[in-house]
Write a structure and sequence with these properties.
Distance between the termini: 22 Å
Structural class: alpha+beta
Keywords: Chaperone, Copper, Cytoplasm, Metal-binding
Subcellular location: Cytoplasm
CATH topology: Alpha-Beta Plaits
Domain HMA: 2-68
Strand content: 25-35%
Helix content: 25-40%
GO molecular function, one term: copper ion binding
Radius of gyration: 11 Å
Number of domains: 1
Number of helices: 2
Strand order of the largest sheet: 2-3-1-4
Organism: Neobacillus cucumis
CATH class: Alpha Beta
CATH architecture: 2-Layer Sandwich
Order of helices and strands: EHEEHE
């Protein structure tokens, strides 16, 4: 299992949390997704044999947020 913390800009409310956690959590190989609104961070635990870090970043960006 890999664990990564991404800096994500543009999240500001509960809807943002649901959008990110729901979309990333739906990917195959994701075991946990935790959004920290105040810190502008998303912590993801995943199986790198099933999903790549780039796929995770793209999924977050598809929701309208910037991954730094």
């Amino acid at each position: 299992m890999e664990k990564v913390t991404l800096n994500v800009q543009g999240m500001s409310c509960g809807h943002c949390v649901k959008a990110v956690e729901g979309s990333v959590g739906a990917l195959k190989g994701i075991s946990s997704v935790k959004v920290d609104l105040k810190g502008a961070k998303v912590e993801v635990e995943f199986n790198d044999k099933e999903v790549s870090l780039n796929q995770i970043k793209e999924t977050i960006e598809d929701q309208g947020y910037d991954v730094k």
